[in-house]
Every structure is written in C-alpha cells, then in structure tokens.
Amino acid sequence: MPSKNSDGQPHGPSKPPQNLLLWSAHQLWRFKKTAIIGSGAAYCYYRFQRWKLNNEVNNRIIDGTVLTWSITNGSIIETDTATSGYGPLGRVMDTLVKPSHRIRMLDALVALEMAAADPRVKSLIVRVHNGEDTDARSMSTGLGIAQTQELRQALERFQQRKEEQHGAGKGKSYFYIDSFDDQQTYYLASAFSDIVMQPTGYLPLTGISATQVYFKDLIDKLGIHMHVEARKDYKSVVAPFSQSSMPEKHRENMMDILESLNSTFIRDTARSCKAKTANCTQAADDDQPATAAEVMRRALEEGPISAPYAEKLGLITAQDYIFDLESIIGLRKAMSLSNYGKQRGKEHKASITSVNIGILDNAVLLNMHEQEGSSKRSLVATVGIVYLVGNIERHGTNSAERIAQHLLDAARDISVDAIVLRIDSGGGDVIASDTIGAAVDYIQSKFNKPVVASYGNMSASGAYYASTSCKRIFASPGTITGSIGVAAMRPIITRKLLDYIGTNVEELYVINNKSNSSFTEPQGSELERYRKLVDNIYEDFTKRVAKDRGYSNEDVEEVAQGRVFTGIQALSNGLVDEMGSFTRAIESAAEMGLEVLVPAKIKTLDRRVHLEKSSFLRQLVAMGHFKSVDEAEKSLINKPSDAEGKAANSADNSDDESNKNLIGAIIDKLGISSKDPEEPQKFFKGDITRNILLKEFPQQRELAKWVFDSINKKDDDPDGDFGFSPTKSARMSAQDAAKNVVVAALRDEINALLSGDSLRTLEKSMEQGRSVRAESDNTRFK
C-alpha cells in the first residue's frame, strides 16, 4: 500500500512551495553534484569561447602591423625533423623544452616573403639578445654564411616592396643589439635600413678566416699510426690526423674559399651600407671620397671598431638603448614574425580557390570549366619538402634509409607535384649517400616528379653525391660544396702504445687476411686491395657527376680531386645551376612539376576527346545521317554548320560539345599547346605567397591519429620486406624509436671499446669545436 503522510493522505508528486527561491535552493542542494559539474562545464565552455574570440582578435592582422623578431643563438634552425621523428609525443616534448621563439629557416623565409607582399605590414623590428631560456654566451644569431645570405635576400625584398607600397624612405626595418660579438651577425644586420647599437658596443670586423688544428704529433706520441688513403690531392679531411701542418694543396683551396667569401661579404655589406647612408662614402680621418667597398675593407683592416667610429663610417645608423617596444612603434600593433607566419599561412590556404592539376579527373575539370568565373581560377602546385641535415649515416634516427623513405613518401603522395631536397650536410658514409642518390633517381624515373636540391651552409662530398641527379641545384654564394673525392682513414695501434699501457695483444687468423686488424699495417696484396676499393669509389663518384652534370670524363677532373668551392665558384664551373634561396628553389620546383604534369594531363584529355568523337561519328552513321564515318568526319570538318545542325538532333551532342569546349578551354587557360607537348610554353609562374602549398615529410600528424595507427599497425604492405613501405616510418612508435637509439648508442660504445677505437670521441669533439665545418666523408674505424 502506498505510504501516507501525517494527515493521512497518500504521498503524491512534490509541489513547489510558495517561495520559489527557497524551492530552487532546495533543488540545487538536492542535486548539488550535478549542479556543480554542469555549472563548471558551462563556465569552462564560456571561458573557452571568450579565449577563442580574444585569440582571433589578437591574432588578426590589421593595417599598420609591425612585425617583431627576437633572435638568440640557436633560435633559427633548419629543421626539427630529427627530433620529431619520434612521433607526436617527441614533438610535444620538444615543444616543452625548446625556446618559445624558435623558428625554422623555411618558416622565417616564407613569413618574410608574405610580409613583403602584404601592405598591412609597415615595418620589421629585430632584436638580438641572449634570452632567458638559452645558455648562449654571445650576442650571435648562430647562423652560417649561406643561411645569413638567404635571410638577407628576403630582407632586401621586404624593404623594396615596402617602399613600393608606402613610398620612398618608408620601407623601414630596424635592427637592435647592445654589441656585436661576431661579424656574421653584423652581416645580417647590414641588410636592415636602420642599425642601432649601444654607445659602448663595438664591431669585431676582421675579415673571414679559418683555423685548423693538427693532431699527428700527438697521435704519434700515443703510439697510434693513421693509415690514410685520399683521392685526390685536395681531399684533406683526414689531413689533421696524418699531417703535422696544412698540406699545400689544401692551403691553396682554403685561401680560394676564404677570398671568395670575404669578397662576397664586402660586396654585400657595402651595397647595403651605401643604400643606408651617404656617410659610407667618406673616409674616417679625412674628407676624401671613397667607395662603400673601400670603406668596408678599411673597417676590416682596422677592426674591431667602436660604436662612434662605426656610426661615423656609416656602418650603423645610431647609438641608443632599447628597453620597451612601445616607444618605437607607438600606437601600431606589434606581432611576432612566427605568429604572423602562422596566421598568414592560414589566410593563404583559405584564399586558394585554385585546383591542383595532379589530383583531378576529367569530370572535375569539366565541372571546373562550367563554373561561373572559372576563367579567374589558376593552378596551384604542392611541393614536398624533405630535409638532409647533418652527417650522412647508414644507421640512427636520421639514417639514409629514413631519408629515402621520406622521399618515397613524398613521391607516392598524389597531391605532391614536385619535391625539394633541402641539404645542409658535409657528407658522410658513401653507401648511405648512394642510397639517397638512388632514391632521387628512382623517384624521377618512376614517378616522373622532379626533385630540386636547395643547399644551405654546406653540401659537400657525400651530400653532393646524393644530389647530383636533381633536376636543378640551388645554392647561396657562401655555400660550401663540391669536395668530389674520397678519403678513408684507418688507425693502427703500435707496440709503443701497448708497452706504455702494459698490455699485449695476440691475433689468431684461420685465413691469412688481416684486412680488419687494428694492430697490423696493411701491406702487399692487402694494401693493393684497400687502395683499389678507394679508387673504385672515387671513379664511381666522378662518373656520377659527369653523367648528371654534363661533364666529359676528362673535364670532370677539373672540378673533382676533392676540391671544395663556394656557391659562386660552383656556379661558374657548373656544379650548381642557380644562386637562389630556399623559397626560390621551391618556386622553381613547382614550375617544373606542373610543366611535366600538365602536358601529360592534356594528352590524356586529347585522347578522351578523340574517343568521344569517334563514338559520336559512329552514332551519326547508325542514325542514318551519313553513309560512313569518313563521310561524317569530312562533313564535320568542311561543313561545320551542317554538322552542328545534324548533331543537334543527337541525344549525345551535349557530351561531345562539352568535351570539345573543355579541351579548348583548358588549353587556352593554361597557355599551352597540346599539339606540341615536347616544348610546352611556360604557363605557370611559381609564387610561394600565392599559388604554392607546402607539405613536409615526415608529415606532422595529430597525437590521436598517431596512437591509433601505432595500435592498429599492419605489416602486410607489399614493400615491407624491403623497408620502404609507404607508411612504415609513420608506424614506428616512440618507444621503439627510443629503444633503437639506446641500443645503437650502446652498440657503438661497446664496439669502440672492443676495437680500441679511441679516436672516435676525439674526432667528434673536434668536429663540434670547429668554427668552420669541414666535410665528414667516409671516415670509418673498425
């Protein structure tokens, strides 16, 4: 029976009391947990929407925007691919530990290019400092010469475009620093319209130089003999271990490089100095006119120079301090360069209404033609970016196999029209270099996608070997390249070292072959085999260069023999094709990609129209309009008006007319003749700010997708046995990658201890400490 209340009445549904406020409070208390959770969720949602709105407003690019860029030593990097290779978790960790103002070279160049074309941007302010999150002990950018030259080109274009947009003298860019700690930083600063330095600062201008330390005498004292084979005279990467002083050929080569780099430094800084102020044409201690180059050369001879003297020469604009940005930009909006690049990139993608020709079928093209205003559309190219940075190795997290995998992933991506291989490497293992070079050849032959090389600070020895077959090679004037040669070094531990440390070694061989011995000097047939192996590698290297770069087998020796060149020298002797920055290489790759793809696409359309036309003529004959197909074709050609009348009676006329209109419209739109596909006209002008999309490999993926792929990974791909599956690199988990790194490191250390490879650490420490990097080559120890 239902329960009753005190009045004897059964319980019914509760009624709200007369005081609604008390009833509401009672209900809230009754369902307090639900109320708290709901209120919290509503508040969080409200705050998120407010944050999203404020973020959109604050990140909006408005007219009068001033870009700011905070640079510290190491804040500009080529790529973080090596770190991000561990997957999204690795990228999350890298984001947590890296400086917040770090920016990649490509992102900086693209942001400057977009800012130059954007009239909303008025000026650029750059400040170089140590930074709170870096342990750098110098006011330096940490950039190489070639990287600095790429940024200088972008900055010069920025100023030129700003003056065109806002009037002469208004395209300002400002560079602030308390004092220069190296002349490389001043090389970058000279591209700005205004350079401001503290009165107590100075310019350490002394000219380009290089220092090399030689260890032969020290190694001899330790009781170790270095057996060296180098091909040929200029290949001196192993000289510090086998010579007591600099070989004459190496000295000659190095002086040529230093003179070339110094001449470029003087020319570029003098040009910028002359454009900045007329004081640069006056000598320091008299009133005699002097050219800007003469003033700069005199400053290099007299440096380091103080800030007042530098201002008198016109090398800086003013002496002042900077403590707050508002005093400089006033009421204008300040926006960091990296943030601007992200927001402008979003605008760039949203504004593209064009079509990537590589992924279109005929139906989509027909629909595109029929759309209203389609004549205003233009093509868009997608360029894949792959990095080859650091020493080229067969193993490790950034091995040659992984680089080749990234190239193949880009080639297999149907949306990618061309590939740019960005290189900043001094070389390395010859087998690893050959793996990358073979991947470039394979992609260009099988996928018909051009691969363009863009050289950074260095692309020498094995790095040049890997890129010789690229369709076009871009370099900067200060890029170090060439070194077409081979060097091998083998340490031999002598009795002197064994006696010194009080040990003895006994070797037992079943076969009389001591080629792998670390205690026996190669002699006789063993030495001949060793030298023949090095000769074969050198011969293969020179043949590859001759074939890919258009040299005869005799002329290739003029640029080989291990000789190193600057970018300007390499351009004059044909080792590179053009002086240009990273962005220029991307634009060229996009142009070549569509030049290859569009004629093939139009040829396919021509084939379709031909088949449709044949079918249409046969239908006209079957319907009794003509006695034969030949008569119908003749009538269509000679009497188009009659043909149109007869075709109007055919139900299939609209499809055929659409096809004929389609092919004609596409040919007219692209400005290319399908009748002569062998020599297509240049119909596409690559512009990274307008009609080019970038896609980097390995691709950046969201954490959720990466976890899902890791859990559901499959190994049934057809290429899995060969290690070059389309998704194999994407399936590697962070745990597996970390385990591989640890195992590889332990294996190397154990092998080093067992083989007496005591020079490995010495070699690495030397390379890290060099102010001028040299090519690594194929230096291998047992």
TrEMBL record:
Keywords: Hydrolase, Protease, Serine protease. GO terms for biological process: proteolysis. Residues 173-286, 446-591 form the Peptidase S49 domain. Residues 637-659 are annotated as: Disordered. Pfam families: Peptidase_S49. It comes from the Eukaryota. GO terms for molecular function: serine-type peptidase activity. The keyword Protease applies. The keyword Iron does not apply. CDD domains: S49_SppA_67K_type, S49_Sppa_N_C. PANTHER family: PEPTIDASE S49 DOMAIN-CONTAINING PROTEIN, PROTEASE 4. Belongs to the peptidase S49 family. This is Peptidase S49 domain-containing protein. It comes from Coemansia guatemalensis.
